[in-house]
Structure formats: C-alpha cells, structure tokens
Design brief:
Blueprint lengths: L8 H4 L22 E4 L11 H9 L2 E4 L2 H10 L6 E3 L5 H13 L4 E3 L12 H11 L3 E4 L4 H9 L6 E6 L4 H11 L5 E6 L4 H12 L3 E6 L7 E6 H10 L6 E5 L10 H12 L4 H12 L3 H16 L1
Parallel strand pairs: 1-4, 1-5, 2-3, 2-4, 6-7
Antiparallel strand pairs: 7-10, 8-9, 8-10
Helix pairs in contact: 4-5, 7-8, 8-9, 10-11, 10-12, 11-12
Amino acid sequence: MSSRENRGRSSAARPERGDTSPPAAPSKLAGLRGLFVVATPIGNLGDLSTRAREVLAQVDLIACEDTRVSAVLLDRNGIGTSTTPYHDHNADRVRPQILARLQRGETVALISDAGTPLISDPGFKLVRACIDAGVPVTPVPGPSAAMTALMVAGLPTDRFYFAGFLAAKAGARDRALEELSRLPATLVFFEAPGRAAESLAAMAVALGNRPAALCRELTKLHEEVRRGDLATLANDATNNPPRGEVVIVVGGAPDAAPETDADVDRALGAALKSYSIRDAVDLVTAGSGRPRRDVYARALALSRAKAR
C-alpha cells in the first residue's frame, strides 16, 4: 500500500493487534544485491515477515514514502538502517541519486508507508530505471490492502481488476465507472472515508446495484467489513460514515445482458455458481433490466430444480 494505496497512513504504522515481544536478531543474508521492493504491514505490525525484517536490517539504505511513519515500524523491529524519503513530490529528483548508489554496488530497500510498494505510487519508475540500468530487482512480498479486502469480501476472485482511487470530480469519476461497467471481473477501489458514501451511490448508478463490500481498517483494532448491494452500502455509509482506511470491492458485470427467459436462466445459472441467491439476483437484475421479483422467482425455481 502506498500514499495512494490508502489514505491516513500514520495510523497504519501504529501497533494495533501485533505481538509486542521484542524481535529476535535477524540472521545474516548472503549475496544481497540491488533493489529490494519490500511489503510492510497495513496495520498489524506483527504481519511483517521474517525475510522482510532481515532485508530491511541489512541493506545500506531504505527509501521510504514518509520516514517518520516508517520509523515506527523500524524502531519496533530494532532496525537502524539509514532512511531517505522517496515519494510523489521528490521522486524525479531523488530517483537518480538512489540509482547512482545502486550502481556503485550499494543495496536499497523500497517501502511505502503501509502495504506493497508500486500500488498507486512512483515506485514503478524506480524499478523501471533499475531494470534499464541492469540493476537487480528483488520482490519481498507481503501485505496488500487490495488483496486483503478480496480475502474477506465474499465476492469471486477468479478475475479481479484493481481500479485504485476514483477521480474526485464527478464527471471524471462517472466516465471511469462507465468504462468499468462492462468488465466481467470483481472490481477493487481505494477510497477516502469522507467520499465513500458518494462513491458508492455513483457506483450503484453507473454499474447497477451489484453486490459489494466496504472494508475498513483492515488488520487493525477496529477492522470492519460491511456487505450488501451498492445502494444499501451507500445509504449505510451516509448514515454511519466509515472511519479510517477504506477499500471497496464490487461484483463484476454479467457476461452479457440477458433478454429472453432462457438468457436470464443462463445468467442466473452462471451467477449462482459464485454468488448467493440474493447476490446473483441483484447482479442479473442489474444486467437485464428485468423486475427483481421476476428474476428472484426464476432463481428460486432454478435452485429448487437443482436440489431435486
């Protein structure tokens, strides 16, 4: 997760539910070379992997999105490696400096404030520069807000699309949603908590009233997952605004808009393989334009026939 992977990063660095025992001394890693792209916890500091801690402790430099935020994680793990800020605003200036150190044979770890670097941040430009210069790039995988939300949303994961943050202006946001409306894949969005209700309502209009999940404060003390259709979630977010970091997961579009009864039955049959009856009905209703009660009656009939 990066500065855009989710907002409110300082809270992500605070230990919420992680182990508070002191870490063991890292073992020595042999043959460290080049740039290491290291994932860090999105909330629970206990999610830092042993390998990530060893790499961070032994590289020559850690490039951080915000050194003050990263200091909490590094201090918690007894890591005293030098740090330097690397973010949207200084990337063009700092990138050549980091690359020069790498070309001299030094080792550098790239981290974001929380989660996996390169997700909506300038990290990919540093990786690309290293590749062009022949500098080795090594991933050290771990937590990601997008993947964590998919794990608990209860929506299909065989195909998914990460859409990042929607534009703040309504026109650009609605155009983006229109482009995504026909994509037959689960959609994953990051959103600021103050804009969640408005974005959910816009999604309900542009995408149809699909099944969705609003996930907030994942891996933290106040972790919460709200599930329902987009309209219900929008109303809930209006009356009970979410706090903290938010990920919205939305069911994908049907493969085609069914027209005849046979088309509706085929669409329902496909949807029922992955969704509950209620969510399958919502999905097919949105794609077909049929009255929900009619689609629901056909879904019940299909389920009863299958149970015989």
